[in-house]
Design brief:
Elements (H helix, E strand, L loop, with lengths): L1 E12 L2 E12 L3 E6 L5 H8 L7 E6 L5 E4 L11 H5 L5 H15 L2 H14 L2 H13 L14 H15 L3 E5 L7 H13 L3 E5 L3 H7 L2 E6 L2 E5 L3 H35 L9 H15 L21 E10 L2 E10 L5 E5 L6 H8 L7 E6 L5 E4 L12 H6 L5 E4 L2 E3 L1 H7 L4 H4 L8 H13 L5 E5 L7 H12 L4 E5 L3 H7 L2 E5 L5 E4 L3 H21 L17 H30 L5 H28 L4
Parallel strand pairs: 3-7, 3-8, 5-6, 6-7, 12-18, 12-19, 14-17, 17-18
Antiparallel strand pairs: 1-2, 1-4, 8-9, 10-11, 10-13, 15-16, 19-20
Length: 620
């Protein structure tokens, strides 16, 4: 079933033509990704599909009566609303009923609660409420009464994403949905989107995300759209085939063009009516060979400064903000050429850790000694601070008129820009005309031009296109220095890092010897072991001579049987209370009392269930 049809779509900004005469269709249940280099119109195309911008020409036809949800890179939210009001902004009756129920529970108003429960029951909204709370919890949106304007940019994007998932439109249009999510959130979102009923259209640089979710990929290249029916791995294989075939055809066309050009120059008298077809063919071949085969790669073989034996030594360093410990008595000595990934949930202090090492913020205690040969290259999330009215070439020339590549090779600023896929036509463009990804690429150039030997990269993959990421990975793998990376891009981390600094509770950092996927596998193996230990810990062996407990005592056996009976009775009472809340028979204070008892029973069942599991280990 066709959900979306696009015919001959074109868009330009002044002299910059992003795309022309694009045509494609998207069917129900398809999961579509759009891949292109920065500045070629990915976000512009999504904005047009999402109704936030208009096309210059062409038609967009959505199937009648379907709903469309669009997540922008920088969502617009109402700063005056509370988080709850923003989350539950919807014309959906079920969502409106859940909001009324949440309001009534928070205000403890019996009449409102009675009405809200009746409406929830009528609309069968109870399961939907559980799903909403799961989405909010997974995206770590917990302070529902907080004003939206008090949230960070990343929190606002997560809020917009939650709102979109809660409404569950027929078509989800997502522009970089994994930005501002930590790795746990990304893995949850990955699983959620696999099971969603929505048709997906997305732009993302997360290649694991692409590989595991998408079944159709559109590549926008040189103003043309190429379709691949498969995931990211299939796309890579078929794209190489396409480029190879294009190069073969281009070589054939160039060879034919030389012959035709010779004929064209030598035989002007042949330009008669009879030869018109050949003249037309000549101009067609000329058009083919003049097309740029825009498959250049960014080359980043920039010389790094010599790194001595002493690099960075951290001794018993600590840092807290109020009651929150970021680092607690951490000691580490960096070795030459090691590449370390820094992982942990949002807000745990990863960026603060980088700022401590680079000396931008002070320690609470401990000391950091930096070797005399260390030259930092710091790529920060907030580092793009160019003068928007400068030209691209000026930004580079102000840093250096000469870039050292090592081995006696040097580059001029214009050559260096070409290496970074800034063609000559863009060298004298103003910075404000660049896309977000192009600005980040320019910023990366300014960091690498200083010949650092210790790179600190804070989310370097945000807003960079996949082509640039692949080349950046190649550069970092061959980089003759130390690298410290904070990134939520799992694919990127797996290719680069030797080991991880894992931020845990209370400012503790675990040094894990492996990449991110290896860490996830290890963590999953530890979970059942940890649960088993937790279940066994409360069982105390009173007789010191008995080395291992093998069966229950008589008293524990009685307790085990009693728990089974008590849990059965509590489950019966819980169901009765749920029926009372759902059938509308309760009024006023009775609703509040029943709700409180329902919550108590849930807590009792958790406690008794844990104890029952402990005893069950030895009950057989």
């Amino acid at each position: 079933m066709n959900y979306l049809q696009v015919d001959n779509l074109s868009k330009s900004y002044g002299d910059l033509e992003l795309f022309k005469n694009l045509s494609f269709t998207i069917d129900k249940d398809q999961r579509v990704a759009l891949i292109a280099k920065n500045g070629t119109g990915k976000t512009s195309l999504l904005r047009i599909l999402g109704g936030k911008d208009t096309q210059d020409a062409g038609n967009i036809i959505f199937r009648k009566d379907i709903t469309v949800g669009y997540l922008e890179q920088e969502p617009i939210v109402n700063p005056e609303l509370t988080v709850m009001d923003e989350v539950f902004q919807s014309s959906n009756q079920v969502i409106a009923a859940i909001k009324e129920y949440e309001d009534a529970c928070n205000t403890h108003h019996p009449d409102k609660l009675d009405t809200a429960i009746h409406q929830m029951d009528t609309l069968k909204a109870w399961d939907f409420e559980v799903r909403i709370k799961q989405i909010l919890a997974q995206l770590k949106i917990t302070q529902l009464e907080q004003k939206v304007g008090e949230l960070s940019g990343g929190q606002q994007k997560r809020l917009a994403l939650a709102n979109l998932l809660i409404n569950e439109p027929d078509i989800l249009i997502l522009d970089e949905p994994t930005n501002h999510l930590d790795m746990d959130m990304i893995e949850w979102l990955e699983g959620y989107l696999k099971n969603t009923k929505s048709t997906l259209i997305m732009v993302t640089h997360d290649r694991y995300f692409l590989d595991r979710i998408c079944d159709v990929i559109y590549e926008l290249d040189n103003q043309q759209l190429y379709r691949y029916r498969g995931n990211y791995s299939y796309f890579l294989e078929k794209r190489e085939e396409r480029i190879l075939n294009q190069n073969i055809e281009l070589d054939k066309a160039r060879s034919l063009y030389k012959k035709e050009l010779d004929w064209f120059n030598r035989m002007p008298s042949a330009r008669s009516t009879k030869a018109k077809y050949r003249i037309d063919s000549f101009y067609e071949i000329q058009d083919v060979v003049s097309r740029k085969n825009n498959q250049d790669e960014v080359k980043l073989d920039v010389q790094s400064a010599r790194l001595g034996s002493k690099i960075i030594e951290m001794e018993h360093i600590s840092k807290s903000f109020g009651e929150t410990a970021i680092l607690n008595d951490f000691t580490y000595k960096f070795n030459r050429f090691e590449k370390i990934g820094v992982v942990g949930p949002n807000g745990c202090g990863k960026s603060t850790f980088l700022n401590l090492i680079s000396g931008l913020i002070p320690l609470d205690s401990g000391k950091i000694e930096i070797g005399s040969t260390v030259v930092f290259g710091y790529y920060t999330q907030q580092g793009i601070q160019f003068d928007e009215n400068k030209r691209v070439i000026d930004v580079i020339q102000e840093l250096s008129e000469d870039i050292n590549l090592g081995d006696g090779n040097r580059l001029s600023p214009t050559q260096f820009l070409n290496y970074f896929l800034f063609p000559p036509s863009m060298h004298y463009a103003y910075v404000y005309k660049l896309s977000g990804g192009e600005k980040r690429r320019l910023f990366l150039m300014t960091v690498l031009m200083k010949n650092p030997n210790f790179l600190i990269l804070d989310e370097p993959t945000n807003d960079l296109d996949i082509m640039t990421l692949n080349v950046l990975e190649g550069y970092l793998q061959n980089f003759k220095g130390c690298v410290l990376i904070v990134s939520h891009d799992r694919y990127f981390m797996d290719k680069i890092v030797d080991h991880l600094f894992v931020f845990e509770d209370n400012g503790q950092i675990k040094d894990f010897p492996g990449n991110y996927s290896q860490y996830r596998d290890w963590k999953e193996e530890q979970t059942p072991l940890r649960k088993k230990v937790e279940k066994q810990q409360p069982v105390v062996v009173e007789n010191a001579d008995i080395k291992e407990k093998t069966k229950l005592t008589f008293k524990e056996k009685q307790e085990y049987e009693q728990l089974s009976h008590e849990m059965e009775q509590l489950e019966i009472e819980k169901q009765q209370l749920f029926n009372s809340l759902s059938d509308g028979s309760l009024q006023g204070e009775a609703i509040v009392k029943v709700s409180q008892r329902y919550a108590e029973i849930n807590q009792l069942l958790d406690q008794k269930g844990d104890r029952w599991l402990q005893l069950s280990e030895f009950a057989s």
